[in-house]
Amino acid sequence: MLATIPPIGAIFRARRFVVPFILLFAPLASCQTTGHSSPAAIAGPTSLADGRYTLVVHGMSCPKCISNVEMQLTRIQGITHPTVDMKNGFVRIDVHSDNAPSKMAIANAIEDSGFTLVEIREGDQ
Is 105 left (phi over 0), alpha (psi -120 to 50) or beta? Predict the structure, then answer.
């Protein structure tokens, strides 16, 4: 004989939780990775010159990711208008040389966001 599964509302009303409710949504709580930035991403000159740059970032997959990365990057002096392209894994930033940020500061900001900086490209690439 097939066992029937009661409707979810009946389970909650009866206080018979098979799985605690919070565990159903725990995987959605965070999509961050815990990687380290690529050494190639911070190789070369230590600070960025004036201009636009594209950061290649791995691990972003939700709107919370966008907010977190943008917040971390706007804290760095010399960076303005961080724009996240989550679909392609790019973050575009404008750099002003009067307060030129270091590549290490950018890598640390991305890591503090919970993601991995793979590469820093000049321009809108």
Answer: alpha
Cα(50)–Cα(35) distance, rounded to whole angstroms? 28
Confidence of residue 90 (pLDDT cuts 50, 70, 90): very high
| Token reading at 3 | 């066992």
pTM for the model:
0.69
Bridge-based pairing state of the strands 116-122 and 90-95: unpaired
pLDDT tens, position by position, 28-76: 445 555 556 667 666 777 888 899 999 999 888 888 888 899 999 999 9
User: CA 108 to CA 125: how far, in whole Å?
Assistant: 22
List b or e across 17-51, with b for residues whose CB sees 16 or more CB atoms inside 10 angstroms.
Answer: eeeeeeeeeeeeeeebbebebbeebbeeeeebeee
DSSP class of 32: -
Q: Which CATH number fits domain 39-122: 3.30.70.100, 3.10.310.10, 1.20.120.50, 1.10.15.40?
A: 3.30.70.100
pLDDT value, residue 22: 42
